[in-house]
Design goal:
heterotrimer, A alpha+beta, B alpha/beta, C alpha/beta, A: alpha+beta, Alpha-Beta Plaits, two-stranded antiparallel ribbon, 3 helices, 4 strands, about 20% helix, disordered N terminus, C: alpha/beta, Rossmann fold, 10 helices, globular
Chain lengths: ~80, ~375, ~280
Amino acid sequence: MSLNQQTQVSTRGKKSFEVLVIKDRCKECSLCIELCPPKILERDSSYNRFGYRPTRVTDNSKCVGCRICEYACPEFAIFVKEVKQ
Amino acid sequence: MEKGKVLYVNGNEAVVEGAIAAGCRFYAGYPITPSSEIAEEMSKRLPAVGGMYVQGEDELASINMIVGASMAGAKAMTATSGPGYSLMQEGLGLAIATETPIVIVDVMRAGPSTGIASKAWQGDIMQARFGSHSDYEIISLYASSVQEAFDLTVEAFNLAETYMTPVIMLSDGVLARMRERLYVRGQNELTIVNRKKPAESPESYMPYKRGEDYIPAIANFGEGYFVLKDSLTHDERGYYYERPDVQAKFVLGITEKIRRNASKIYRWEEAYTDDAEVLFVASGVMGRIASAMVREARAEGKKWGIFRPISIWPFPEDALRRAARNASKVITIEMSVGKLIYPVKWSLRDGQEVSVLPWLSYEPPSPDDLLNLLEVKA
Amino acid sequence: MEITLQHPLERYIRSEKMPTTWCPGCGIGTILQSFLKAVDELGLDPKDLVMISGIGCTGRVPHYLRFDGAHVLHGRAIPVALGVKLANPKLKVVVWGGDGDLASIGGNHLIHAARRNADLTVIMVNNFIYGLTGGQVAPTTPKETVTYTSPYNPDSKPFDVVKLVAAAGATYVARWSTAYPVLLKESIKKALNHKGFSFIEVISQCPEIFGRINGFREPYDLYQKIKKIGQIRRGISPFDAKYDWNEEISLGEFVNREEPTYLEQLEEIKKKARGEKA
């Protein structure tokens, strides 16, 4: 990839995302945590209503919006929202 | 068609005429003697009136297909005989649990197991009521003439739609193939019943909520109610819920629905019962022959009476008790080792002597044959 | 509990029944996610969708979806679904079943529905085991693994259901896994719009039962195994697809062609019946 193309990519502007967790649906399966490419998901230390420690986001600013967590979750417990700038 | 017409047909064909007159537009079946003719007739007649005939890959496919078709609003039917009816028991349970109206025709034949395919028998009387597992009630009708086969098939569909239940239309190898005059009633001469429609809007709708008549108004698929029909024990929302009171309400709902309305469902025919000292009970082909026998016996001065149940289930217990009130003996005449005798025994508690006269030949007797046998017995 | 936080697909879900009864990490929910995204992106009217399922963990799918649905008998979802579709052809009927439900007890109905080119979409969740009943061997269980009724490995080799359904005449056959949810979503879109019989097998993880008994401690471990053996192949015949636990389970679209559907054939018959009368 030439320097010109690299510049083109970065001038398109960076989108911003927010990862939201419906805590009481999470069952600690950890698929989202393992699969997240920028590794911004971890297990919370507090328990939800059913005794599971749900996923929590460490740093929304690093989310690239790939939605792998959203697609992988078997419980509709996590999803990604695009934050309009 | 609006006006009636006269035909000369057999019992199987009469069932087909009755089904089409009642509005049946979906048939899924599997060939089995002596009912295959119903499938053959349906495959010819249904497409011509805009219906669909499907030959299932087996009886299991057939029964489940008609349940599915009925869940989507169609009036659906299948026909079979003993071995096929045995296969259909689980599917029957599905229709019962989801309260889906269907009509199953069981043209009884000699059994058990493969038996003699082309010969009549009356051995499935109890299976019609108790063939499937666990708690339920069922409606079962048994005709003894070609005209009655037509009329009762229309009744079967009406009862199925009214009570959101399967109805077992019993027949036998003799009725299936005997030819008689049939008056096919026109649409303007028939009463056709369609299932209740939900009264509420989808937001507050509970498919299995029962009214005063114990009958739920269950929406069909595709009407916007997002209804869930479940073979698991379910509550009024139709949701599986593992709790003792849900199970209790579920089985009570299904059984009380028929029991509380039984008086509207009972059908029977009786003659010479006011002063009968010996009462004969018989249904279907044997009912017809026994009726002729009693007529002849009366001409000879014998104080005999005849009670012919037409709704085998629910069995008309009170009517039988009344018919037998002056009798000291009650004898069922059956083409089997004795099945009808069970509900007869259950119904009577006034000290009558109850027994069965089993006719174990598949060649139906003449009234004289029966009279000769009974010289020894009654 | 967050009552205000709603998933983007919440309107398709019976929220009052969540969370599901499935085990943590079970692949069925992931497949549902792809399915609902497909429905959403196609813009289908929820009133026209009907979910029919058999017995098993996959059979619980209609419980969680806010569409018309029926949870029927083990192995009999396909005939029920066919009855529904024929009684009301404008409905889009989807069958959900596991490998045991559809390929064992329901096998006969599966091959006949494929033969008829029945207007149904069948999604078979293959987790190599009978999960709901506690982990018994299935006709899809690989010989190298164990289950609670095959402690000495299965007695027979497994089906490759893709081959079975293709040989029976199905006109859309695909296999994906929970490791490729976006491809699965796209395939579901195709299947829902396909004329006639469409069949999608989805290799899925059963972490609590199949996973544990075969040495995969975490859902992610079994997921990785499924991701590794699932190889996407393009343009191969279904009869060249592999179904091998050690080497490869071929994924992709194997059959996609158009033939007269069952409904079309029944309409032809209606025409003939009326024509004869005239």
